[in-house]
Amino acid sequence: MTPEFGFSSYEKNAGNCEHGNLENDCEICLEEKIKTLHPAEKYDITIAEKIEGGHLENYHADEYEMKTIKDTDSDADVIVKNLKGFDLQAELEKLKGLSIEIAGPTKKGYAFNMPGEGGSIQGIDLFQKTSEKNKIYVSNIFTGAPHFADGKAELKGKVDFVADGENMPIKNGGASIIFCSRLGKIDFDGIENMKENESIFVPKSELDRLDSYKNESLTKSDLDEEKAVIRESTIKEAWRILDEDGFLVWQGGREEDIETAKEIGFLPVHLEKICYKSGEKPHYSYKAIFKKITAKE
């Protein structure tokens, strides 16, 4: 059934509006009507529904407050965009389902630059803030977070349960907030190092990847494609297990991650684009808080 978002099923008629334009073709009337809608409905109308005669794909940027700040630790420029009216504290109070971290534990937490009083920006560890109210269950395909140094592998921290972020053992709509940071695939040398540490249980899926590399059916250049695939499928899995109005907190992301999330229906309520200036040209990383918006049948 096609979602109804106010305009998606309107019919043309021959009447004229107060601005002298054909009714339902008047962009002034359209913009006025859009102002009365919920932000999620605005997003779906302009991006997903592609309203005939509207062509207002870019107007949604007006719904965000934007500031540029300097990250004192890395000297990076950070563009911070927050959906107007989004109250993080109020939303955290509403959480009823499970709180989950995929591919954790993340040692440095989830530091976000959130709006404060008087238009200021304040740093908040969203993971810590959430854990003050809810137990966060940490998962990974390993029993801890893999770390590599000097050709050796070890696991740091502990998980609450072992699970693949692409196939979580959680029912549809069972979680209210999901955290994930810098998701990727371990390179083949890393898997080899993990095999050498007898205290680390290496899943069969990773051993199969290593075998494929050794018999040359996988190459190091395939890692980028693997990373793209796992990120996309994990975002889709997060959509499945989140309840209506649930949140996905995504750290260390790429621009394509943001687009994937929006395409499947997530509404970005907070975005940070970090510009690192080291090297010949700048490179970017993204942090985001997405809200799951379920279309009403």
**Secondary structure category:** alpha/beta
Strand order of the largest sheet: 1-2-12-13-11-10-3-6-9
- The radius of gyration over CA amounts to 22 Å
How many domains, in number, for the residues?
2
Number of strands: 13
Task: Please tell me about this protein's structure.
By secondary structure, the chain is α/β, with parallel strands linked by helices. The protein folds into two domains: 1-57, no CATH class; 64-292, Rossmann fold. The protein has helices at residues 27-34, 39-49, 88-93, 126-131, 188-196, 204-214, 222-241, 255-264, and strands spanning 64-70, 77-83, 98-102, 111-115, 121-125, 136-140, 145-149, 152-156, 161-162, 175-181, 242-253, 266-276, 283-292. It has a nine-stranded mixed sheet with strand order 1-2-12-13-11-10-3-6-9. The protein has a two-stranded antiparallel sheet with strand order 4-5. A hairpin with a 6-residue loop joins strand 12 (266-276) and strand 13. The chain is globular and about 75 Å long. Mean pLDDT is 82; it is low at 1-14 and 37-59.
What secondary-structure arrangement, pairings included, does this model have?
Blueprint: H1 27-34, H2 39-49, E1 64-70, E2 77-83, H3 88-93, E3 98-102, E4 111-115, E5 121-125, H4 126-131, E6 136-140, E7 145-149, E8 152-156, E9 161-162, E10 175-181, H5 188-196, H6 204-214, H7 222-241, E11 242-253, H8 255-264, E12 266-276, E13 283-292
Parallel strand pairs: 3-6, 3-10, 6-9, 10-11
Antiparallel strand pairs: 1-2, 2-12, 4-5, 7-8, 11-13, 12-13
Helix pairs in contact: 7-8
